[in-house]
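User: Structure tokens for both sequences below?

Assistant:
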Amino acid sequence: ESILALSNVKAITNDEPTQELEKLPDNAWVIILTHNHQLDYELIETALKHGSLGFIGMIGSETKAKRFITKLEHRGFSRKQIEQVTSPIGDLSIPGKRPVEVSVSICAQLIKLQHAKKQLAKQVDADVLENKSRTSTVKNNMKTTVSNELLKGAK
């Protein structure tokens, strides 16, 4: 059985990859790893226009990332939109530029992000429960106050 079949990864081949990006579900993670800077830019622009992707990462140098930022700004993208792009992608504490080092670096960053998002989700769930509990307490206190005021008025 294929490793892709066992994972949450779907391999797609298309001569127009921007069309595939437009179809992605909300919170999908996109990693751009081409050798074509123009295609990379088109993919970044399409990913940003999607508006609700969970992660956008692109391989490349800091120089390439800076050029893309400038171009995106000139095309009217906001600072907030541009900050959604992680480039260069990878855990920069892992040294080396060989393919094996770059791939390990990218995997390390994705694993860290995945765990960080899980921790954030747990914290949000805990905060929601705490807020529900506070809301319930406030509502009960308000009911008691209103009831006491009604009882005072009836006397």
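Moving on to the next sequence.
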Amino acid sequence: VVGDVVQVFIGLIVHREMHLVVGIKFNGRVFNVLAHEEEVKGDTRIVMRFHPRMAPIKAAILPLVKRDGMPEIARTITEDLRKHFRIEYDEGGAVGRRYRRMDEVGTPFCITVDSETLENDTVTVRDRDSMEQHRVPIAELRTHLDKSIDAWEAV
């Protein structure tokens, strides 16, 4: 885009933990990104904490299993949301490992299609930073993501 200025800087903060700091300055506004490791239930989790507006991938769509029509529903959701956001579709491996892959690249939201989706057309939306999960009707996903991006605050 002509007239826009983007500057990237990288630093390292060492204080009990190592944190990689990536800063992005866009049109005079600075966005800081922290990538760090944290312990969660005995496992190490690496998280790139992009502000959702700056995250290269806004959400990942994850069918819980590769049967029972879940992949088809997940692909439909993917195609619908791709009109508005950069979306990743992933059906490979255990859902926990898929969450971790998305955490590492800074994807703020994971949307899981599961057996409850088949019953009531809702999905589980997982927040990268808090790891909280909420049921959201499929028809309200775009609005939910827009509101979540606008309301985001660093943890």
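User: Anything stand out in the second?

Assistant: The chain is about 25% helix and 40% strand.
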